[in-house]
Amino acid sequence: WPNEETLTLTTRPAASIPGYMYFLNSQTGTFSKVIGGVRGLTTKTNTVGFVGGMDIPLIHKFESGYKAGFHKVNPKGKVLVGYAGMTGEAFKDPTKGKQLGLAQYNSGADIIFHASGSTGLGVFEAARQKGKLAIGVDADQYHEAPGYILTSMIKKVDESVYKTIEKALHGEFKGGVWDLGLKENGVDYVLDDNNRALLSQEV
Question: What is the pairing mode between strands 21-26 and 176-180?
């Protein structure tokens, strides 16, 4: 649609970008380092877990960022990793999520970060069953398992879209990629009255 301004979320094109297309790319891999750091400062067993949905490069970014942040503040700690599968079904399999979560908790993890869609609901169920903690993704998932969600890594898509609309209204819309990290207020983690007591003062 060359005559229409187009906004695409959470993706980065492989080819050149036409002037009418604008891509918002949330720096989830980079911000996962912050989440890893939060876990590194919070774990009591020095072992944490990561549950991914589909075993693909996009989710590998979450894993690698998380591990890098964790080891930055807890270099002797251990990160357990599991993936739900190799197809799109891996993002909607809570039964598999619970299985992976229980395996990691039973192996010593006291906190698990998931990037697995609704598969993560199974991780939360495992956290409830074992009396451990989990970390949500994309949005605040505290209410999925109150008392068992340490925090959530959130994409602030609403603010990003609002800022893009402002650009269009002021005639500043240009084709390209806008990488949205912590500095740009494109990603963040939840800290409120629900989880404040769960996070250490160091965090």
Answer: parallel
| CA torsion through residues 10, 113, 194, 190, sign | negative
Residue 72 CB contacts under 8 Å (≥ 6 apart), including other chains? 33, 36, 37, 40
If pLDDT is split at 50, 70 and 90, which confidence band does 1 have?
A: very low
Position with higher pLDDT, 179 vs 122: 122
The tokens of 101 are what?
């979560």
Question: What's the average model confidence in pLDDT over 111-137?
Answer: 97
Count of Cβ atoms closer than 10 Å to residue 164 Cβ: 18
Q: Scanning the structure block, which residue is given the tokens 């906190």?
A: 111
- In angstroms, what CA-CA distances link 3 with 7, 13, 21, 187, 201? 13, 20, 10, 31, 52
Identify the H or E element spanning 99: helix 94-106
Q: What is the pTM of this model?
A: 0.80
